[in-house]
Amino acid sequence: MRKSVFKILFDVSYFIAGAVIYSISVNVFLSPNEISPGGFTGVAAVINHITQIPTGTMLFIFNIPILVLGYIKMGGMFILKTSFVTVLVSLSLDISEKILPPLKTDGILASMFGGIFMGVGLSLILLRGATTGGLDIIAKLINRKYRHLSVGKIILMADGVVIALNA
User: Fold this and answer.
1) Taking the CB of residue 17, how many other CB atoms lie within 10 A of it?
2) Are 90 and 60 in contact (CB under 8 A)?
3) CA distance 92 to 86
4) Other CB atoms closer than 10 Å to residue 138's CB: what's the count?
5) 162 contact partners, CB below 8 Å, separation of at least 6
6) CA–CA gap between residue 53 and residue 75 (Å, rounded)
7) Of 92, 106, 86, whose CA–CA distance to 25 is shortest?
8) What is the pTM of this model?
9) Would you say 95 and 55 are in contact if contact means Cβ atoms under 8 Å apart?
10) What CA–CA distance (Å, rounded) separates 57 from 69?
11) 5-59: per-residue pLDDT in tens?
12) Are 164 and 46 in contact (CB under 8 A)?
């Protein structure tokens, strides 16, 4: 019992730290310099730029049907953790957008620091067995049907499409 409570608290602390660091990446470095992250976050950031609808809110809305589909097809702890992280990231994006100052700087520096912060944030989340939802779940579902396509290659192709559309 004690070990399971400790494990849950450990997971949650990683998820919170990962969500905050990920949000800093998007709201401090990438979005202010009009650099698009990949995936659903990139689409949500572009919609935010055009409509002023908060990035986290859009990200959450995009993820609802994907999380439901993932639960139906995959079930289990992975989707439960990923759903929790999706809520955390969405809230963190919307809160940090209001309180953190955007850093307008050289595009190379912004993309470098944005990438570092995003990588650290995502790593903390992935280390504890979750994802930020979106394309990760879609890639896992595609990989189940087409085993010759790795999850990494599917995400890379989808991110490439999102970034190209944002350009």
Assistant:
1) 15
2) yes
3) 10
4) 19
5) 36, 38, 39, 42, 43
6) 31
7) 92
8) 0.89
9) no
10) 19
11) 899 999 999 999 999 999 999 999 999 998 888 889 988 988 988 899 999 999 9
12) no
